[in-house]
Amino acid sequence: MNFLSELTGSFSQNSASNPTVEMVEAAYRHHKLDYRYINCEVTPDQLGDAVKGARAMGWVGFNCSQPHKVEVIKYLDGLGESAALMGAVNCVVRRDGKYIGENTDGKGFLESLKVVADPKDKNIVILGAGGAARAIAIELALAGATEITIANRDSNRGNELVDLINGKTKSKGQFFKWGSPYKVPTNIDILVNATSVGMAPHGDERINLDIESLSAGLVVADVIVNPPNTLLLSDAKAKGCKVIDGLGMIVNQGILGVKYWTGITADAGVMRDALAKVL
Ligand code: NDP
Questions:
Q1: CATH class of the region 107-244
Q2: pTM, entire model
Q3: What spacing in Å lies between the alpha carbon of 207 and ligand 1's midpoint?
């Protein structure tokens, strides 16, 4: 008999505050799972040793955050479909003794979006072209979005993501060089803020957007977790748009991770409450 808890956790460079710990541990407690989720501070030069250590200790899996999402791939045994397309991993799962890299960033977003809109056959604008935008864009493309516009300040980053969408998925990707306030075209169904604008301690920072171009009927989603009620979402609500906050994305990522590691579908309410307490 094994008297030790199963181990899971997070490898991040700055482990000072990681709300995922409270959220996942709350799910383990609620479902009486003998699992633990441990926050580990891992610097880039120690990442290979950290993965070796997890293998040696029989960890069931772990999350990793930036700057480890791409680097970790060389220490794994394989990749899931969307992680392979994105070239980034945020969730590692032990399957038949092998560490397989998955990406739950985009999947978590998709689950949270589906409550209000199905991205299939929709025209979507994503503001930003960083890690979160990349994961969201690929998952929306795999879910059947018709057209995905990437609006970003940096053209290289933006065009790289557009090339990935056009080269590896059936959706049509296009780039918009973002400089002046972004005017949402009238044919757009879903607008996603995947930049870091509005994140604490800069919660009073407004995104460079023409608020008058937000029409009722548009779905506006924000990835920002803290604060969840961003200025973008309050502006969008005032214009009659349906809104989705960043908490849904992180909770659904947590649910996917727990499902991958334990096979249990965790209670979303328990995880969201635990998250709200620490934010
Ligand atoms: P990256 O650093 O990879 O990318 C940041 C993006 O934001 C870039 O496209 C950058 O544009 C853009 N950006 C930054 N500042 C501005 C600005 N003032 N105006 C316009 N664009 C700007 O970050 P990530 O993609 O990893 O994360 C982005 C956000 O998503 C973070 O706040 C993170 O906390 C959140 N997140 C939320 C998750 C959730 O579960 N809710 C999961 C993962 C991330 P440029 O390239 O031009 O510099």
A1: alpha beta
A2: 0.93
A3: 12
